[in-house]
Please model this.
Amino acid sequence: MTRSLRTGLAALSLLAAPAALAQVGGASVLFLQIEPDSRAAGMGNAGVALADNANAAFWNPAGLGFQRGTEFGLTYSKWLPQFDAGLSFQYGVVKYNMGKLGTLGAHITYFDLGEFQPTDENGTEIGDPIQSRDLAIGLSYGKEMSNNLALGGAVRYINSDLASGTTVGGQTYKPGTAFAVDLGAIYRSKPFDMGGMNTTFRAGANLANFGSTINYTGQAGSDNPIPTNLRFGLGATFDLDEFNRVNALVDFNKQLYHVTSDSVDSDGNGSLDQRVTTVDSPFKALFSSWKTLTVDIDGSGAQAPEQVSALQQITIGGGLEYWYNQLFAMRMGGFYENPYNGNRKFLTLGAGLRYNIVGADFSYIYGLGTDSPLDRTLRFSLLIALNR
Model:
């Protein structure tokens, strides 16, 4: 389906835009925030404290340190289905345990943005339709430091091709590239008795996508941050009996990029006639991103701005997972984001099957509120585990 580039990029901004309403400009390559596996997606997008399969490469690379064997994973989702814009999300991952040396993982994320018709600033069609896509390739590593603690990290190359060769407003667009790293830690307690249930407590943290900015024109002052994210989570596993197990998880997320826009007097005549956007460096943003944000509600300044504190910028997701004999699972969860900081609110459902070396999972998002862009999103994942 051919649509205007402007419409396509507007749809893209709804992918995971945790600060699109809160910070001028926001971040690019938001596909990096899409949770790749249907299992965690069925539990309210929570998984940093669990991270017990190959998808730990996304949730928390430290989780690889506790894992053994070899495992492959694939995920597919038609994205934002109600827009009917031809968007799709695909993810592949593999992990390989190297014994005492730790566990290595490799992963690739491909986001198909469909075909778009580029237009100029006046909406006039220019050139031929173009195919837009985002791509990320990475390596992850996790090492068990003790029976209770594992550490891990990842490196990632990002290539974003939105409108190559298109010239709008005197700017010619080209693919943008960036590099990023992840750092993670995960703790799990020894099993202990709680009310007759064998219980394991978990805690995890992951700093994801910490790295360079991305630029689509090569011009100075056109840098965009990538969505650096700090995720912290808690969890517990309850073995009810020999056959029945419940996992309970909750994750907290904070975006660690900071973009501001100010009016300046460009010609010295005393009038504020130009807007200048400033992107903090990744290291500076580790601190500046905790500032209270001033939100222009309707973009025009007609309404009084809202103040969004650092606490209100944190998203919360959590859920439950029930397993019967490690063969069949049912999942449910929820996700909340402040109305002035992205306003994503949804419930999630999911299920999973395991047979021999094959596992299959799916998740479904039920959006809360009017015209939720993520409503009715389905995700399907496949896992193949070897040499456990």
User: Anything to note?
Assistant: The first helix runs from residue 5 to 12.
